[in-house]
Amino acid sequence: MYTISCEERDAAFYFALEEYCITNFPAEEDALFLFWQTRPTVMLGKYQNAFKEIDSSYIHAEKIDVVRRPSGGGAIYTDEGCYQYSFIVDGQNQVIDFEPYMDRIIHTLQTLGIPAERNSRNDIAIHGQKISGNAQYMKAGFTVHHGTLLFDTNIEHMAAALKVDPEKLRSKGVDSVRERTALIANHVAPKTERNWFADEFRRNILGQEAHILELSPEQYEAVQQLAEQKYRRWEWNYGQSREANFCVSGRLPGGRIEIALQLDHYVIQDCQISGDFFSSIDIETLESALRGSRFDKSDVANRLTPVLSEGQLYCITTNDIVALLFPEA
């Protein structure tokens, strides 16, 4: 395993670095691990509607970055009080599989005396309170799994910056972000410094055979250029939401999904599928399949079935989508 040392605090830079590493992966290595921090940032899931997930006035007033991930899942708040990690592995699964990566994170935390446990599809918790969220995507034959560790994050900023779905909180049996979330700093020895935690965590993940690399000036510039051309653009971070005249949403086993349709004489002219779900296929494939379909239960099912195989939407099936669009009377 190898790692790249960087001192950036820009989430757009690190998402660009992940993508750059996929296309410039050393042939002799089978895995890359990145460990990084950001300035105050809201990271949106790939399929989310930005304007429904954030408090725009608060974001602007507090100068908080907004960056969309290339992976699914829900919006998260990060700052220098938490750590981000990325595994980039040569080999692409057909379906999302969190378990091997989350198990490694949990084992490492437990090694450091932190009573971490998995408590949902993609969350790690201490005594039922979330300390880590995880997300995953596949690209060009690689699996990218990334997540966050809340050490001493500013929970007040987190609660104010995000518009959290009340239904999601109720599903966790809590009433607020503050109640749902824990900080690792409160579960380690008193006076444990942030840097000590980071160093020990990184050392345990990488082991004794880690190769530490530095980006050359040319590589650094290439990553910055990709960040500028994609991950810092308004079109990527905000410009993916379209108006619709029919919209349904619901929380399914694999996460919340919202389907917005533009209908003309009950024919689907446009479609946008958003939410905090995970997908191993390009969601545009499903949206394209529905365009031109009659807004009819059997027609929609017939359009989706050939393009959506089992497991491609994590814990969401064609039948789930059809039932959401056409609930039984």
Overview of this protein structure:
The structure is a single chain. The chain is an alpha+beta fold and 329 residues long. The protein has two domains: 2-237, 2-Layer Sandwich (BirA Bifunctional Protein, domain 2); 246-325, CO dehydrogenase flavoprotein, C-terminal domain (Enolase-like, domain 1). It has helices at residues 11-23, 50-53, 56-61, 99-111, 155-161, 166-171, 177-180, 194-206, 217-231, 234-237, 283-290, 297-304, 318-325; strands spanning 2-4, 31-36, 41-44, 65-68, 76-78, 82-90, 116-118, 123-126, 129-139, 142-150, 211-213, 246-252, 255-264, 267-275. The strands form four sheets. Strands 2-6-10-9-8-7 form a six-stranded antiparallel sheet, with helices on both faces. Strand 8 and strand 9 (129-139) form a beta hairpin. The radius of gyration is 20 Å and the shape is globular. The model is unreliable at 169-176 (pLDDT under 50).
Summarize the structure.
By secondary structure, this protein is of the alpha+beta class. It has 13 helices and 14 strands.
Strand content: 25-35%
Individual helix count:
13
Number of structural units classed as domains: 2
Under the CATH scheme, which class of the largest domain? Alpha Beta
Helices and strands, with pairings:
Layout: E1 2-4, H1 11-23, E2 31-36, E3 41-44, H2 50-53, H3 56-61, E4 65-68, E5 76-78, E6 82-90, H4 99-111, E7 116-118, E8 123-126, E9 129-139, E10 142-150, H5 155-161, H6 166-171, H7 177-180, H8 194-206, E11 211-213, H9 217-231, H10 234-237, E12 246-252, E13 255-264, E14 267-275, H11 283-290, H12 297-304, H13 318-325
Parallel strand pairs: 1-11, 3-4
Antiparallel strand pairs: 2-6, 3-5, 6-10, 7-8, 8-9, 9-10, 12-13, 13-14
Helix pairs in contact: 1-9, 12-13
Enzyme class: ligase
GO biological process, one term: protein lipoylation
GO molecular function, one term: lipoate-protein ligase activity
